Amino acid sequence: MNIGEIARRAGVSRSTVSYALSGRRSVSAQTKQRIQAVIDELGYRPNAAARALKEGRTRTLGLVIPPASLRLTDMQLGFVASVVEAAAHADLDVLLSPSGGDHDRSFERLISGRRVDGIILMEIRLEDERVTRLQQEGLPFVTIGHTAHPQGVCWVDIDYAELVARSVHHLADLGHRSIALLNRSAELVAAGYGPAHRAQAGFAEAVGRRGLRGIELPCADDPAAGEEWFEQLRERHPEVTAITTINEAALPGLQRGIERLHVAVPREMSIAGVAARHWAEGFRPQLTAADVPTGEMGAHAVELLLERIAAPTGAPRHLLLAPPISLRDSTGPARTD
Amino acid sequence: MNIGEIARRAGVSRSTVSYALSGRRSVSAQTKQRIQAVIDELGYRPNAAARALKEGRTRTLGLVIPPASLRLTDMQLGFVASVVEAAAHADLDVLLSPSGGDHDRSFERLISGRRVDGIILMEIRLEDERVTRLQQEGLPFVTIGHTAHPQGVCWVDIDYAELVARSVHHLADLGHRSIALLNRSAELVAAGYGPAHRAQAGFAEAVGRRGLRGIELPCADDPAAGEEWFEQLRERHPEVTAITTINEAALPGLQRGIERLHVAVPREMSIAGVAARHWAEGFRPQLTAADVPTGEMGAHAVELLLERIAAPTGAPRHLLLAPPISLRDSTGPARTD
DNA sequence: TTGTAGGCGTTATCAA
DNA sequence: TTGATAACGCCTACAA
């Protein structure tokens, strides 16, 4: 089924059908109606490839996700869902590319094959060759997270430094003097993963400013590691009365560790963090945390990308989100024994 | 950058470049080398739209996921990841369509716009209009899960009836006489969601055959509901000594409920289920469960779809997976007090 | 071994 | 208000 067939059945030329659909030229009401009737009857839709070839745009966005081998976190998942939804809302499709490195085949297909009009890049590293690759190709893109030198790049990110600092201040206000940071995994820190670095920075800054004792212990991104992390913390640093964390995946394990050692939250230990609302509310007691707005982030990323596609040479915009900390039940005054 | 430009720079015709790339005609080593040098220098790749238009295939698969508003379960997520990976392995891209109903715009774009060579449909209902829509369009597709009348359709599914029955038999063998089924939500059952129906059927059949007392209580698909479910169970059916479940999302809540009421597992209560390995191992104590092989399922679905695309008229294949139950720590002999 | 030319389905320019 | 036609970039049958 193609436009020629529609034209033939409606007794008009192909261009008239095309114009009737696009509205870029006036078509008599009568003709338009006849064409529409045929289209409805046959269920015609323009062939996407032909249209893309002619128009030079694909009406498709690319979303580069971490390789499937790495389990996606809840936060990342929420982000993928919101990007897809926001794109669908703009009548755009989303092409997925699971790739980490620069030389990934599907990543290369996406960009040099001109399969998409723009790209959203997740899980950016502080030094990220994919960014330079996209810049050299001149394909519009938006990153989630930002590189060490994000000038000239559109990005959306969570201000982990600010959020961790805020939770430290909140805990300090409650009288806590020894606070531990439950950061993302040592591997990620080593790989130059921005959130982990910035959490570190924000923690150090706030702890320094308030004259507190700050403890940092590495922890892998999974429940088992969280449980072990808590044991180690109690063993090595019994003076710690509060924890701040950005490691969502370790939360269930942290909870198990706390329960196993019979530590009362928040009476004996306060916990504040950065997490998707879903996780914060699933914690027991519910977690005082900055709720990461994954849904908004996806929508913002799509919005920024569409702007960039419309005006590739404009000044790049970026968004640094610092959602407020929602007070729940996991933080309270420091114990005074 | 297009094939003409490459041809010009290499001093050959466009067809020679095309043949050098496809290998469908012999090209002298010297010419081939010259062409390759130019391609490498300029980073040329065939335009996907032009190629799709000419060849009549897009080298893209469509994956229809549940709408973003519904939180994807871990199992679904694992499935998406494995489909994307399997597709990438075959040098295919994956286009995502978040849609529930038949008249969804992105779903329609996918199929009548010929944006994909085939489609994988997740979260099939017993009566699913998307299936009939795809059949009428004549687009190859594979479903995850199957409809009430799956004749002539390719599908991959988990044999929930068999797995639930097996877990009931396992529990009966351990001496349990009153067993509760923690099924998916009442809404899903009402909507004709296959796994929920088949779990029910398998449960009823096995319970009947072993002469047991079978309890069914509805439970929404989230942790809070799981916790409440367990309370209700203890209140209304204190005689129950074993639970079988396919409701992954309710597991964390079930666990909390068990801990809150200080019920010892498996001494006072045995639990067996169907769940992604990740969830089973995250449960405390680790859950005796049939581990849903999401990774394999995605790969199988892609494999079946590729077969179907290659031979659309062949006999439709299907796969009903019944992975063995992995014995872990949550099941034991019935208490005898 | 290589080149020429036609057509995939669409949109847009030019002409009527 | 409408129609004929060229062009997007690629692949391939045919010709040399």
UniProtKB/TrEMBL annotation, chains A, B:
<feature type="domain" description="HTH lacI-type">
    <location>
        <begin position="1"/>
        <end position="55"/>
    </location>
</feature>
<dbReference type="Pfam" id="PF00356">
    <property type="entry name" value="LacI"/>
</dbReference>
<dbReference type="InterPro" id="IPR001387">
    <property type="entry name" value="Cro/C1-type_HTH"/>
</dbReference>
<feature type="domain" description="HTH cro/C1-type">
    <location>
        <begin position="5"/>
        <end position="45"/>
    </location>
</feature>
<keyword id="KW-0238">DNA-binding</keyword>
<dbReference type="Pfam" id="PF13377">
    <property type="entry name" value="Peripla_BP_3"/>
</dbReference>
<keyword id="KW-0805">Transcription regulation</keyword>
<dbReference type="InterPro" id="IPR028082">
    <property type="entry name" value="Peripla_BP_I"/>
</dbReference>
<protein>
    <submittedName>
        <fullName>LacI family transcriptional regulator</fullName>
    </submittedName>
</protein>
<dbReference type="GO" id="GO:0003700">
    <property type="term" value="F:DNA-binding transcription factor activity"/>
</dbReference>
<keyword id="KW-0804">Transcription</keyword>
<dbReference type="InterPro" id="IPR000843">
    <property type="entry name" value="HTH_LacI"/>
</dbReference>
<dbReference type="GO" id="GO:0000976">
    <property type="term" value="F:transcription cis-regulatory region binding"/>
</dbReference>
<dbReference type="InterPro" id="IPR046335">
    <property type="entry name" value="LacI/GalR-like_sensor"/>
</dbReference>
<dbReference type="InterPro" id="IPR010982">
    <property type="entry name" value="Lambda_DNA-bd_dom_sf"/>
</dbReference>
